[in-house]
User: What shape does this take?
Amino acid sequence: MFADTITARQKPPGQVTKLIPSEVFAQVADGIEGLVHLRELAWTPVETPADAVQAGDEITVVVTETDRERRRLSLSRRQSSSAGV
Assistant: This one.
């Protein structure tokens, strides 16, 4: 089943796979990708995902929501650290 081992509040490492205008796709497990919304990429506002990350970058994220029915993960890079980075 989709993301059986992934739950909210986990901090898996991720690899950025694709950038689109307001989101970033990150692979957090073999065959499992989630979305990081632009506002969740960095503590300071960024205009585009490329201002914070590039495809291939390794990042740490927090799983903020799992939607098993729709097979979607919501991720946050900003919440993965307690300090503003």
Q: What stands out?
A: The domain at 13-80 is CATH 2.40.50.140 (OB fold (Dihydrolipoamide Acetyltransferase, E2P)).
